[in-house]
Each structure stands twice: as structure tokens, then as C-alpha cells.
């Protein structure tokens, strides 16, 4: 009998892993496509179209006619993209506009026929829950109020130590308000206060953090980020304290149409909503008095996918799978970063300023080769690391890892722009330098093969830094290796010691 060897298509697994979600909202329609959602919650395709399906919904109770025509054109384009990409794993969700419009049924049928897929129309509570689940993807231990501002509604959810305890949906969407026949900008605060007062759980307990979800609030925070010359140009986890944000909101809420035309940095489709979103945010802050306000790019869509794809968001397996995904994207097909991590880890055990999560990521993200001179390479790796597509990193953590990767590629006598260093205290800067020096030294040992990282041992004892190596490999300890070992010991304020062993 002859056994047939079945040839597998290497692209098959990739196509099956790919996942798309379409979100049909009151103001915009967006499609995201993920390479592998279980490995990375950052989409490689993200496209939005402002269709205004819910324009004048409070007056007509119907979908906006021109918005409906445009929405179907956009959805046909999305359908073509999915067909060309051979992506069949698709989820379609819809929110307030398709819940409330009296003529939504025909539109829903057209969309479901186009994609051969049912639309999941979320209730207000489901929206709030999905937004909170999405925030949990992007932050460590969520504790506070999640507020998702869309075109048709505002969803609020209390999350206590990653558990959702309360939720509600209110008719406070920016598109709805700007076209509301009764509620105007001048009496908006009064209207919001009345709605909030009916939600008793909002005033029962103070909130430590306020997490903001939704395109209009992202635009608001983007404006603040650029106006204040924040060096990390990433909206996710951009945070502002209560007092500073209130001053900014007071200014933006007073803008008239002519003033809004002068606003830079953000999409013109969002500018008209800035004063409304500022007033809503101000009232939320007055009511809940959070210490810190943070922006999240992960929300409703990510949360809608989480329920189907994850049982435990806090599982170490999730983090490890993300590390391996990034490593492979960086060309580390042999997962060499693990060898680097286990080699330098004994030196940094118990370092409160540079934990194991950051150390793991530094080992992954520093493993690049741009084929350029040392200094240019350091700059490029710094920027690449700073902007790495990972969600659960604060801006300070991004800077810490980026600094380590920078010093991995150039001498510690060089510094990146000083504006980054102001985000860290001295201990955090020293720890970043130490990790950079450790990676630089480890790399000098691997010029022949990374296998030596498994055979050599690096550890601290008393006031000395020890490198223990098998005697048969002593020729690897070149002048360059010795120089970098001494540099690492100097950064750790330890004496360098090399030991040779016969086993």
C-alpha cells in the first residue's frame, strides 16, 4: 500500500485565523481585520466611513436617506475587500441607529443578503458591556468608569478590578444631539444632569479612573496631545489629570463654528462634535470626580469579539502568545528572545522599576537589524519600539522599553531626545540603561551562535557580577565582549568577574 502525503497550503492557516468585524453605527461604519485576534488585538486593516445613518433620527424616526445610500456603497466595498482577501470569518454588529429606526428592517435585510451573515443588533446594555470588555483588553486591571460616546448614544459601565458591576445606555450621542429639535448646546448640561441623576449607581461611589471610548473623544484627546507637544504620538493610554482636562474642556466647549474651522490635527468630520463631547465629558467628570482620565482605542468592537474568542483575559498564555506573534513579525523565527530573557533575567529579578513583563518585551523588541550604522539603528529601533502595536502598555512603559532597546544598539553615553526622559524618574532611567547594557552584552556573546546563551550563566553575588562559561568556550570572550561585560557591571555598580568551569 502506498501512503499519499497530503500537501498543506501554508496560507490556509493564516486565512482561517484572519477575522473581520463590521460596526454599523449612527454616525460611521467601520471595518477591522485582524491577522490573528488570539495573538494580537491590533488590526492590520482599519477603515471608517462617516455615513450619518442616524442623522435627524429623533425627528424622523427613520434612517437618513442619503446616509443609507452611502452606507450600502461602503458596505459593498467592504464585501469586495473580504472576498478578495478570502476572509469568511466575519462578525457584523449594529448599535442605536438600527435599534431605533422604524424603517431599519429593509436596510438590515440588504446588508445580510450582501454578506450572507446575520447582523447582531446590540441592546444598550450589551453595548456598554462590550465597550467595557474592550477596555479590559487594552489596560491592566481596569478600575473605574468606562464611557463610550457614539453618534446615537452614550454607554456607561462601572468596572471594579476587571469586573463589570453596573451598566447603562443614555440618548446622548453627538450626532443625535447636534440635530436634536429640543436639546441645544446652551441647555445640554442641564439635560445631561437630569439623565445622570436617574442613574443612582453613578453617584454612590467615587471612580478612580475614567476610560474614554469612541471616535469623538479620541479626536478630543488627539487635539490635546498635539497642542501640548506630548512626545509619544499614541492616543491609546494617553492620560490627563482632572484639573488639566477641565481647563481644556472649558475652552473647547465654548468654540463656535468659525473657531472650529481653525482646529488642526484632527479629522474635519469630527470637529463639529468637539464642543458637545466636551460638555458631556465635563458633566461626567463633575458627577464622578475621577482622578485620572484615559483614552482607549479598544472598545465596542474588540469587546464584541472577546466573548467569542477568550475565556480568560488575564491568562499568561495570552501574553506569551502575543510575545511570540511580535517576535515572528520582527523576523525572530527561532524565538531567540526567550534565550536572551532567560540569560539576563537573574540580574533583574526583584527590580521594582523594570518588571518581568517589560524585560520580556525589551528582549522581543530589541531583536532587530536595520543594516545601518549603530547610531541610526538605535534611533530607528527606539521609534519602532515606542510605537509597537501592543495595547496593554502605558506611555511611560513604552518609553522605558524604547530606551532599553535604544541603548542595546548604541553606547550608554548617547541619549535620545531629553523630552522622553522627563517621563521617568532616575531609578527608571537607570534600570532602562542597565537592561540596554545587558542586551548589548548578550548580543556580543551571540555573534557566533545564540546557543551560547544557554550554556553561559550571568548572575549577581554580593558586590560582583559573574559570568560563568564552560572552559572550552573561553575563546568567545574577545576584547569586545569583555568591554561590554565591564560596561554592564559598571551600570549595575558591581565588579565584573569571569569564571571558567569544566562542566
Could you explain the architecture of this structure?
The structure is a single chain. The chain is an alpha/beta fold and 503 residues long. The chain has three domains: 10-121, ATPase, nucleotide binding domain (Nucleotidyltransferase, domain 5, 2-Layer Sandwich), CATH 3.30.420.40; 124-303, Nucleotidyltransferase, domain 5; 316-501, Hypothetical protein af1432 (Orthogonal Bundle). The chain is built from 24 helices and 14 strands. The chain has helices at 10-17, 57-60, 65-85, 96-100, 104-115, 124-138, 174-178, 188-197, 200-204, 215-227, 242-253, 257-260, 268-271, 274-288, 300-309, 316-329, 337-348, 356-365, 374-386, 395-409, 418-421, 426-445, 452-455, 479-491; strands spanning 19-24, 28-34, 45-50, 90-94, 119-121, 144-149, 154-160, 163-170, 209-213, 239-241, 292-295, 457-461, 464-470, 495-501. The strands form three sheets. It has a six-stranded mixed β-sheet, with helices on both faces. Strands 3-2-1-4-5 form a five-stranded mixed β-sheet, with helices on both faces. β13 (464-470), α24 and β14 (495-501) form a beta-alpha-beta unit. α16 runs parallel beside α18 (356-365) and α20 (395-409) crosses α22. It is elongated, with a radius of gyration of 26 Å. The two termini are 50 Å apart.
Number of strands: 14
What's the main sheet like? 6 strands, mixed
Write down the CATH class of the largest domain: Mainly Alpha
Low-confidence sequence ranges? 1-15
Helical amount among residues, as a percent range?
Answer: 40-55%
Spatial order of strands in the largest sheet: 8-7-6-9-11-10
Structural class call reads alpha/beta
CATH architecture of the largest domain: Orthogonal Bundle
What's the helix count? 24
Number of domains: 3
